Amino acid sequence: MPAERLMPNEESTDLVELTRSIVDKELRPGIAGVEARSEFPRQVFRTLGRAGLMSLPYPEQYGGGGQPYEIYLQALEEIASASASVGVGVSVHALSCFGLFTAGTDEQKDRWLPDMLSGDLLGAYCLSEAHAGSDPAAMRTRAVRDGDEYVINGAKAWTTHGGEADFYKVMARTSDDGGRGISCFLVPADTPGLTADSPEHKMGLRGSTTATMLFDDVRIPVERRLGDEGQGLPIALAGLDSGRLGIAAVATGLAQEALDVAVQYAKQRESFGKAIIEHQGLGFLLADMSAAVESARATYLAAARRKDAGLPFSRQASIAKLVCTDNAMKVTTDAVQVLGGAGYTTDFPVERFMREAKVMQIFEGTNQIQRLVISRDLAR
Ligand SMILES: Cc1cc2nc3c(=O)[nH]c(=O)nc-3n(C[C@H](O)[C@H](O)[C@H](O)COP(=O)(O)OP(=O)(O)OC[C@H]3O[C@@H](n4cnc5c(N)ncnc54)[C@H](O)[C@@H]3O)c2cc1C
To answer: Which candidate among 21, 151, 295, 313 keeps its CA 20 to 30 Å from the CA of 186?
Structure first.
């Protein structure tokens, strides 16, 4: 059963329904095979891009969909209900365009943003390093100025779309001044010296390629720096506030799908002469799952509405990421329980959902780091 949404107007209802019909046709049928084979479904991103679904939150002036986050996130949720990997990919693409949109000059935006939002290109976001995940200010990848160019050397770990993307938003050190010594660059994938290491072998989300990007004397013109030297970390972290809302919506879509599969199964499976959903012990488990999904959605929507209204939303974005991903972990784990032994096999998708939910508590800032953001804001 699709999520029951209260959209602000008819146009947004149509957009979410259109998104659902596209993913039902183009994505849902093949996704189990894609995940089982660890394939990267590049063509799906082109299909979504041509339908305008890769650029929803960006202004129409640059080829975006001009949608508020309240709407974009609900469309994203529908994509993620069919495939968490693709949902994460759409969110990461939006994140990789964010630096140019917020910190780029008008000239930089006019020049590159329309292509990045056209739907044909795919972006990636390079912040983490092997020794610098939760603490990105410890990064070592360096960009050294050489005349009109920067020369980048180092390795950016865990890059979603690593080796598949067309452009990389890269944070690299331009001075030794800790978090103030980092700058942000937009690096095209075909720049000489930029290569991808072998993809990681992951517990789940296998349809989303993750790889370390290696920078070996990668030369890029100074005009590809976004913002001033030293502004890279604030640009990266501001992007993460919005990115965390994306992950919150993806986790909610995943949880909704797990709930739907569990309810359908519980209506058909019988024990002791009746459908298992009729046993109060199991019906209440499903009720708790439903409460977790609906409250997750309400939490990310509350944060999105603050963002859309131009209000500070960093704490609310962290709360949404924390609540939605923890709830997705609980709901997907309980979905396995509802299906009993069948839930523990690959004959049903719920074991995959459970593996996919786990990573959402880890990336875009672990849920411990979300608590850090929330508690620091409270202490202010
Ligand atoms: C599938 C996947 C895709 C990813 N995609 C991207 C991407 O596209 N771009 C990108 O830049 N990164 C990406 N990442 C990296 C991700 O953001 C990091 O893995 C994450 O930030 C955690 O960093 P870490 O793995 O180094 O863990 P660590 O920082 O080593 O943390 C280990 C543990 O210590 C805890 N911890 C650390 N510091 C504190 C603290 N101060 N207080 C309490 N607990 C703490 C953490 O919560 C965690 O439980 C991806 C990761 C994965 C797994």
So the answer is: 313
Whether 337 and 348 have beta carbons less than 8 Å apart is answered as: no
Predicted confidence at residue 3, as pLDDT, reads: 87
3-state secondary structure of 109: helix
Residue 349 scores a pLDDT above 90: yes
CB of 345 closer than 6 A to ligand 1? no
For residues 345, 349, 350, 352, the Cα torsion angle rounded to the nearest 10 degrees is 90
Cα separation of 375 and 379, whole Å? 6
Assign residue 51 a region (left: φ > 0; alpha: ψ between -120 and 50; beta: otherwise).
Answer: alpha
Tokens found for residue 139: 């990064």
Instruction: Please state the atom number of ligand 1 nearest to the C-alpha of residue 92.
Output: 8
Tell me what percent of the residues of the chain surpass a pLDDT of 70: 100
| 175 residue type, one letter | S
Is there a catalytic annotation at residue 223? no
Question: CB-based contacts of 7: which residues, under 8 Å, 6+ apart?
Answer: 13, 16, 71, 74
Distance separating alpha carbons of residues 78 and 197, to the nearest angstrom: 32
Q: Are 81 and 254 in contact (CB under 8 A)?
A: yes
Instruction: Name the strand (E) or helix (H) holding 239.
Output: helix 232-268
pLDDT interval class at 199 (50, 70, 90): very high
133 lines ligand 1 (CB under 6 A): yes
Catalytic residue of the set 26, 77, 78, 364: 364
Distance CA 27, CA 53 (A): 13
- Residue 342's identity, in one-letter code, is A
> Which 3 state secondary structure label does DSSP give 211?
strand
Report which secondary-structure segment, H or E, holds 226.
Answer: strand 225-226
Cα angle: 237, vertex 243, 246; to 5 degrees: 165
Q: Say what the pTM is.
A: 0.98
Q: Taking Cα atoms as reference points, which of 212, 109, 236 lies closest to residue 163?
A: 212
Which residue from 86, 93, 126, 128 has its CB within 8 A of the most atoms of ligand 1, so it is best to mutate?
128
